[in-house]
Give the backbone structure.
Amino acid sequence: MTHRHLSLSFSLSLLLLAAMAAACNRQASAPPAGLLQTAIAATLTAAPPLPATRTSPPSATASVTPSPTLTRTPTPVPTGTVGASPTITVPPLSTDDPRFGLGLNLAVPDYHDGFQARYTWGELADPGATNVWDDGRLKTSDLLADPFNWWSTTTSDASSGDFFAEVTAEIQACAGKDAAGFSGRVGGENLNSGYALEVSCDGNYRLRKFTEGSVVVLRDWSSGEAIHKGPNATNRLGLLVDGDRITPFANGVPLGSSVQDSSLGLGTFGLYALARETPGVVVNYDDFALWRLSP
């Protein structure tokens, strides 16, 4: 879907076995102060099609010599006592951590996706971006350094209202404000609304709100000491959304104070790459985890 001067239209992208819709917004001319028009893409759920049934033609009659029977020697089964399963130990949260007192068990998320199975997130192929599953990760690439963002949303039952969620992002060759993007409470008719955390190659972050084609900066680019700078850097991105409070995290550390906004409610999650200096910048995502906050 392309936005020109705040009007919408629809485009359809087909990638491999997954068919999905992609929506985006184009910057309007002379936007009012505090309003930035960028591009968004949100993928819709699409189950992979079943392969068509084909009947092979009859084969010619021929004399076949049976293959010799192979004899295998069983591999000895090792003996011993199976050890106990490892226990994950999470350090207690400090009292000044925004997550303190929310009843979160950080060792056991309510939902986890290790990206071992395909089609748990949408995929897309567009002249501006590609988001595809690749060997146990979601590989996102923003092909043009323009005002367009394209995100893939989870196709699993991972929607939530109040939550804490994390995902591991590995950015490759990058510079400046090339960034990894992680969005929550994604919704809207074309999945083009949501709160988004972007963590850049040069160690900065920002928070934006996308609402059906318009974009508002909730916190502009700010430095974050906990952010690992690129290129080839890996960061654990986190979002805590509790009522009208939105708190960004990097590597388990809050990035500044919370911002307040209550205009978006229940939604799902999105992942994307953001090119500003490096057309074709790649961000690989893995290990998504979600904790729902108790009402």
Remarks:
- Residues 1-39, 41-86 have pLDDT under 50 and may be disordered.
- The chain has one domain: 11-45+95-292.
- The domain at 11-45+95-292 is CATH 2.60.120.560 (Jelly Rolls).
- The radius of gyration is 23 Å.
